[in-house]
Specification:
By secondary structure, this protein is of the alpha/beta class. The chain has 13 helices and 10 strands.
Length: 288
């Protein structure tokens, strides 16, 4: 099987939409770097690209997609509405215009902040109008997550949430379990934590399979059931991150990795921090 076909492996979401298991994350990339990274990723066989209003690089992502020559219908594109536009009736259309497309494959609300109920209604409306194929939530947990599941007409297909071998968000998974919501992992490699990368279990498995510890962790994600979106602007790293489809971890190896779970987060979404997001109002259309 060719590398491109292996990278085309998908998970089926709870509405029947198929989503690639690995993609490129563009968090912290400026528009020019995002443009080049998206181009490089698509040339390397990636078919999932993730961005957000708040990353301020949607225009660059759109240019990278166009420059790649890959057909839009062959790309799974996800983005997120920022809290400051949850009540803006033009938010979805403005997002699509920045991306240079008439639809996205997955549309999130980015934070449980501000009038997130209005934001989620925008997602439901976009889904009904064909402007997205699936909808999701990012960073929701505890009571806000429970409330969202109670009041919404359409349950989310995906949650984007911190996930890595040190933290598997078991409490959030338990809440979402009845709805078959797919996890999309950010900080998949532990936010650059060397202690995670240097765990002996990953060194041992890297030697066994002829891979790097990062590749072992990314393979763990896919077998754990996570969609994974490692970010990089280095073409060699982009290719290496996706070189995880020519081996599989055994059940015993997956169980061994599970033993290092410390419930350790690198991001603390406190109520105070979430409340501040609603007051951050970037001019998204000003990006180059």
């Amino acid at each position: 099987m060719s590398e491109d076909k292996r990278m085309a492996e998908t998970f089926t979401l709870n509405n029947g939409v198929k989503m690639p298991v690995i993609g490129l994350g563009t968090f912290l990339m400026d528009p020019d770097h995002a443009e080049q990274a998206v181009y490089d990723a698509l040339q390397a066989g990636y078919r999932l690209i993730d961005t957000a209003n708040g990353y301020m690089n949607e225009k660059g992502v759109g240019r990278g997609i166009k420059k790649s020559g890959v057909r839009r219908e062959d790309i799974f594109l996800s983005t997120k509405l920022w809290p400051s536009v949850y009540e803006d009736p033009n938010a979805v259309d403005d997002t699509l215009a920045r991306l240079g497309t008439d639809y996205v494959d997955l549309l999130f609300i980015h934070q449980p902040s501000g009038n997130w109920e209005a934001g989620y209604r925008q997602l439901e409306k976009a889904l009904k109008e064909g402007k997205t194929k699936a909808i999701g939530i990012s960073n929701f947990h505890d009571e806000k997550l429970r409330k969202l599941l109670e009041i919404t007409d359409v349950k989310p297909q995906v949650i984007q949430y911190e996930n890595h071998p040190y933290y598997t968000a078991d409490d959030v998974r338990e809440i979402l379990k009845p709805y078959d919501v797919r996890f999309m992992a950010w900080y998949p490699l532990g936010h650059g934590d060397k202690s995670l990368m240097q765990e002996e279990v990953f060194a041992k498995l890297a030697r066994k399979y002829g891979k790097s510890p990062a590749q072992i962790i990314l393979r763990w994600h896919v077998q754990f059931g996570n969609v994974v979106i490692p970010g990089s602007t280095n073409p060699d790293h982009i290719k290496a991150n996706a070189d995880i489809f020519d081996f599989a971890l055994t059940d015993d190896e997956m169980n061994e990795i599970a033993k290092i779970n410390e419930n350790r987060r690198y991001y603390a979404g406190t109520p105070e921090q979430e409340a501040r997001y609603a007051n951050i109002r970037p001019d998204f259309n000003s990006q180059k």
